[in-house]
Amino acid sequence: MKRLLAVTSTLALATACGNDNPPAPKAECQLEAIDLSACQLSSLAGVQPEGIWNLNINLNDGSGAAAAMRLSGGGSNTQMLLGVPATERQSTPESFFLASEYQQGTGASAVTIRFAAAGCSSSGPGQMSGIFRRCANGATDMRGTFEAVRVARRADEAEASGVELVGEVRLADATVTNVAVAHGHAYVTAGAKGLFILDLSDPAQPRQVNKSEPSDDFFTDALVNGNTLYVGSRRSGVIVFDITNPASPVRLRSVPESVVEVNDLALDGDVLYAASPLPNSEVYIYDVATPAEPKQLWRYFVEGAERLAGEVPLHVAAMGGRLYVSNWSFGLTVSDVTTPSKPKLLGRFANASSSATAVGMVGDRPYAFDAGEDWGAYLSVLDVSAPATVSRTGEFRTRPEVSVRAVAFAGTKVYLAYGQDGLRIVDVSVPSAPQQVGYYNTWRETDPGHGVAFLEGLSKVHVPGDGYVYATDSSRGLLIFRETAE
Predict the structure, then answer these.
(1) Domain limits of the chain?
(2) What's the DSSP call for residue 260?
(3) Coiled coil: which residue ranges (predicted)?
(4) Which of 102, 195, 336, 402 is deepest in the core (most CB within 10 A)?
């Protein structure tokens, strides 16, 4: 993903703040200051003036981002642009303009940051392209174009096919980040709200039985190893819980003993891998022969990946002495970890935005199922039998304005948490020809919180082998599915 910074660059701030007579906060980011003379403004007459839209912003310097705007829906009347409440809107048969702004900093150093999107043309009710600007104290510091598509269920699809929703539980005031299932319980990480434990005796009615709330942390991932639960966090690395009593986790320790962000966890035999994008961009490797007492074996910096270029480990998977790391713009890497304390890079696949990977055997060959996370991102089916020359044998995608969020593999199927396109189940028994065999459209425009960010909807998926598929949703919480024969 081309990252559009939510704050102004140092240079732009220095320019804005160093001006003895800075322009008014709106100035170059108001509609009258944007040249629309080459636009087809009459085509905007048919644009739907409501709903939630995903945006692909392309800046003139080649950077940009996928983002969102809310004109209505999302369980709120607040209009938003790039996650900031809108302060100005104009919508007529020949114009569309939306702006939002916020204050960065305080006192004499405060800067007014303003986002502005002006419509230029439209090819249909749910599509629009236009001019984008960002200003600091009224002076443009970013400019470019945008493409916007209203988010809605695909016209050729029903709510579901080959999948039924068994249970659903929304955790109050919490945005869930992942789920692990074991011992008849679901361990749901929920960011700053911590860890929720749900009894799954009746999957149709999951029942919350406990909660562990961090004092100053953000829980990202969960993984069960016997009677031990590992929780990834943004401040405490890997937190270790004893779940001998599954309903009452007991926090034992965290590793390493420093402020470290862990985004994802993977287990292969007695070795635990923890992807740590910050502060140093590395993969922590632990011996967990005694599960509750991880012993650090190595801090692995993937060879060739540049932290300052955003080439950081976001996701890890491991199988058969091989470690697979999603390194964002550096792509998917394959490393030899036969000796875990001496990892060695074997090869990589240069995916533009590798953010999630699952691995498994299809027939007698190992495959990695690598997903990007961006406008136009999709699933790549990669033959990793020869790591030095990883090759893409197949791919699966829905539509460019919706992104894959997470991947799981079981049997010969890949299970995708596909953002606003919900759960997608893809048969990869023929790796060169992935076929969708089931789906469930989970996203609803009116659910609370929607329209703030591009990455919304179904976010994680877990297939523990108990006959159910567990997934987390940015608004709906924990969802439990079951595949059906059709």
Answers:
(1) 10-150, 160-483
(2) B
(3) none
(4) 402
Angle CA(198)–CA(199)–CA(201) in degrees, nearest 5?
150
160-483 has the same fold as 10-150: no
Fold designation for 160-483: Methylamine Dehydrogenase; Chain H (2.130.10)
First-last CA distance in the chain: 37
Q: What is the pTM assigned to this prediction?
A: 0.93
pLDDT, tens only, 50-101 = 999 999 999 999 999 999 999 999 988 899 999 999 999 999 999 999 999 9
CA distance 69 to 23: 26
The domain 10-150 having CATH identifier 2.40.128: the answer here is yes
Count CB-CB contacts under 10 A for residue 370. Answer: 31
**Inter-residue contact 453 to 6 (CB < 8 Å):** no
Question: Could you tell me if 435 and 412 are in contact, meaning their C-beta atoms sit under 8 angstroms apart?
Answer: no
Which of 114, 173, 107 lies closest to 140, judged by CA?
114
Residues ≥6 apart with Cβ < 8 Å to 93:
42, 44, 45
Number of Cβ within a 10 Å radius of residue 109: 9
Q: What is the pLDDT of residues 372-424, one digit of tens each?
A: 999 999 999 999 999 999 999 999 999 999 999 999 999 999 999 999 999 99
Beta-carbon contacts of residue 77 (< 8 Å; ≥ 6 apart): none
